[in-house]
Specification:
10-stranded mixed sheet; alpha+beta; two-stranded antiparallel sheet; 4 helices; 21% helix; 27% strand; globular
């Protein structure tokens, strides 16, 4: 039965490719369709929706990364693997009128214990949903921390660092000089000095590989 399904899938794929080859110049490619859906801006509601995938590795291993674009150098180091480019996410926040903090430097990331700086910038809200889960879950509720603090998510900005380093960092769990957004509740040096450890909460998040939607909203 399994082999029949595989064969049927191959036939269907071949058929679909033949349709594209025959030509329908007005139709978008699947890649274009995917790119259009992974990051959606709603100016009326002042929100951005980004598709991500759960990375189950961080149910048991610690990380300082909440969301990282899958094609960034840190793409496999986050609780959620972002399906949209972090630089386009930055542009989307600017388009909504959000103001970036741009107050942190690479040197700040070397802070000693109890000597860190907190990210600045407009305050944001982030919530998570997925198929079968209609209720919005605050982003902080999908994270377990060895020292819990209320999330204070900020638009750090850092676009020049993002372009230079190409880490893909969308949302860092402590204050960051490269992440587009990060949590001001945890100053720089928090994870580097092992003050706090962060994990994805497997009791809240769906299983590894599940596609979820993260909605970012500007707060005035």
């Amino acid at each position: 039965m399994k082999s029949r399904k595989i064969l049927s899938g191959l036939i269907a794929a071949t058929f679909a490719l033949s349709l594209v080859a025959c030509g329908n110049s007005s139709r978008k490619t699947s890649t274009e369709d995917t790119n259009a859906k992974t990051l959606v801006i709603n100016k009326d509601t002042k929100e951005i929706k980004m598709l991500c995938e759960v990375n189950g590795k961080y149910f048991t291993e610690s990380t300082r990364h909440g969301i990282v674009f899958k094609d960034g150098s840190n793409g496999e180091k986050s609780v959620l693997r972002g399906l949209a480019d972090e630089k386009k996410f930055y542009d989307a926040l600017i388009e909504l009128g959000a103001k970036a903090g741009n107050n942190l430097t690479a040197e700040d990331m070397k802070a000693k214990k109890d000597n860190g700086k907190s990210v600045e910038g407009d305050k944001l809200e982030a919530v998570v949903t997925w198929e079968g889960q209609e209720k919005e879950i605050p982003f902080e509720d999908i994270i377990k921390a060895s020292e819990e603090r209320p999330m204070d998510l900020r638009f750090g900005g850092n676009i020049e660092s993002a372009k230079k380093n190409n880490t893909g960092c969308v949302l860092c769990l402590d204050s960051c000089a490269t992440g587009i957004t990060s949590d001001a509740s945890y100053p720089t040096g928090t994870t580097q000095n092992n003050v706090v450890k962060f994990y994805g909460d497997e009791e809240v998040l769906p299983e590894d590989g599940t596609v979820v939607t993260v909605t970012f909203r500007t707060i005035k």
